[in-house]
Amino acid sequence: MASTASVTGAWHPKTAREKQFVCLQLERIVSDGRFTASKRYPYLLRYIVEQTLAGNEDDLKERTLGWRYFIVRRITIPMRILSCVSAPQR
Questions:
Q1: Which tops the pLDDT comparison, 17 or 59?
Q2: Overall pTM > 0.85
Q3: What are phi and psi of 5, to 5 degrees?
Q4: 71 or 26, which is more confident?
Q5: Of 33, 66, 77, 82, which sees the most CB atoms within 10 A?
Q6: Separation of CA 70 from chain center
Q7: How far apart are the C-alpha atoms of 4 and 78, rounded to whole Å?
């Protein structure tokens, strides 16, 4: 599978300000009623966005997500605070 970084026309935030913008948009999305009704979807979307912002998008495969997110998350309680949630405001 090709890296998402090699997809023509794909935008990737590079600066801290662009990453903060992505995190703000993420929070707008997960605060929508369609997401707040679910326990898994907001956390999954946050995990995917956090990993992508950290440059780990090549590790976001179905099997990896299933293991690291759904199984490990159930074992590790409480779930760690994601960087987008704890990003400092500027």
A1: 17
A2: no
A3: -70, -20
A4: 26
A5: 82
A6: 14
A7: 31
Helix %, strand %, coil % for the chain, to 5? 60, 0, 40
Reading the block at residue 46, the tokens are: 């946050």
Distances (CA, A) of 88 to 21, 49, 63, 83: 12, 17, 32, 9
Mean of all residue pLDDT scores within the chain = 76
- Tokens 């995917």 appear where? 48
Q: Mention every residue, 6+ apart, whose C-beta is less than 8 A from residue 3.
A: 57, 58
Domain extents for the chain? 15-75
Tell me the two tokens of residue 9: 């026309």
Give the gyration radius of the chain's Cα atoms: 14
Q: Which residue has tokens 């898994």?
A: 40
* Residue 47 Ramachandran class (φ > 0 left, ψ -120 to 50 alpha, else beta): alpha
